[in-house]
User: What shape does this take?
Amino acid sequence: MARPILTIDLNAIAENWRALDSLSAAHVTTGAAVKADGYGIGAAVAARTLSAAGCGTFFVATAPEAMEVRDALGSDAEIYVLNGAIEGLPEIVAADARPVLNARTDVEMALEFAKQHETPLSCALQFETGMNRLGLSPAEAEWLAQTDVSALSVQILMSHFACADEAGHSLTREQITRFNELVPELRDRFPNAKLSLSATGGVLLGADAHFDLTRPGVGLYGADPFRDARPVIRLEAPILRVWDVKPGETSGYGATWTATRPSRLATLPLGYADGLPRSLSGRGEAKVGGRIVPLAGRVSMDLIVLDVTDVPDAAPGDMAVLLDDELTVDRMATSAGTIGYEILTSLGDRAIRRYKPSAVTDGKGDVSA
Ligand SMILES: *Cc1c(COP(=O)(O)O)cnc(C)c1O
Assistant: This one.
């Protein structure tokens, strides 16, 4: 089948989780972010793999994502919806998940919901410490301190770093300080709640960023800032066609590539509609016959062309490798002027996904997207 194939190494995900877990003290719970379809690799499979590795706390962005992870995991896991009450409290509760309350309006909606249903609503509270994105502002935190929230069963008190992946950024220190300033009162008020500040970058910062619970995501899937991660994905595509061009001939839309010598070109069936960034035009690379070769010209919607002049025996049907242990997600991200997160979450919609090993997926290891 002339389709790109995305192979996902589930053991690597489990190992990356264990490695990140081992970076914090034994009393610190390590959760996992599986939002955005498990960073593009498949949320259900990622969640099952992580659950088998020992993870019990999962973070998604939306209510439908929570439902998918709940279906995959059964009743045991704790699932938090990061985008909060705006995702719809009925939908979140239907997934037996918990909202992260990110604003006074979220808290008010949650209190109203709990009152209507006459049961305490399990949730997390997020506080703003410097990212200025989501979370109760200092003024809202003041309001919270004066408000009866006994209808809420607060499980997690959290905030989120803006710059944890930039070594020594002063805002990181400030956010730890601000979070610590909130702690005594919050501990007093919600003695059973876990404190949580760190995603992947924070886990790597060290113990004073760990608190009670960490929430790594991208590192589990093998990308920056977890430099010691095991690579998780491999992306390959078959060569559709090979032919020779003379010096002066061009390739692709806009004729941006011109042969400077007698050249051989190879066409692959993937493009920006498959999540390959168009910004790789003129700068992407792939591996054919074990050798790294450049893209010739622009990334089209469904196709790219490689300059395989230096791999003379490249033939239709041969697999070209776009991502592997050497051509990493981060390397592609750098070439494309983006970050590994965006590469991961863009891929996989059209590619055939293969999981290895497939056991943890309940026999559904070889899944076509
Ligand atoms: C996405 C996200 C995470 C996971 O972040 P990574 O950088 O992928 O480890 C954790 N917490 C929150 C609030 C997030 O939005």
In short: The chain has eleven helices and 21 strands. Confidence is low (pLDDT under 50) at residues 361-369. The first helix runs from residue 10 to 22.
